[in-house]
Amino acid sequence: MKTWDEVVKKALDVYLHRDKYAYFYGAKGQVMTENTMNALIAAEPAFFGKYTTAQLRQFKDFARGKIGYDCSGFVALCTGINTWSGGLWERCYDKTPDIYQGVAGSLLYMPGHVGLDIGYGFGLDFPRMGSTCELFRHLEGTRGWTGCGKLEGVAYDGADNR
Prior knowledge:
This protein is of the alpha+beta class.
């Protein structure tokens, strides 16, 4: 079981080395090669079908050679809990729609997307194709989070909502 501070430290390490990482839908830590990206695209035609060929080329160019994660893959890397975004939310307890009540290391949630609260009103996530790990001030409401919760499998002793 990981502790809340281990989760935050791992998330911050990813952010500090964000030039090594790329958001790619469906990715869970693979090196983004042409074959890997094509396989991920083929596995999720409903998701990737909304992009033009030119947009897909841009995403591939950005991701090529980097380590790929989507939002739930990033949370899995930091927490050790590997499931899709809705599954992560299902594995939360002490859920609240008031993200001001979250604690460092807790899951930030909106339908179809997850991130991590790292404390002091900040969070980290992998927000979209063509991006990497991003830092944001979640208390400003710019991401649209609908709730936060403590993840089963993470020890929150000593964590607070600072």
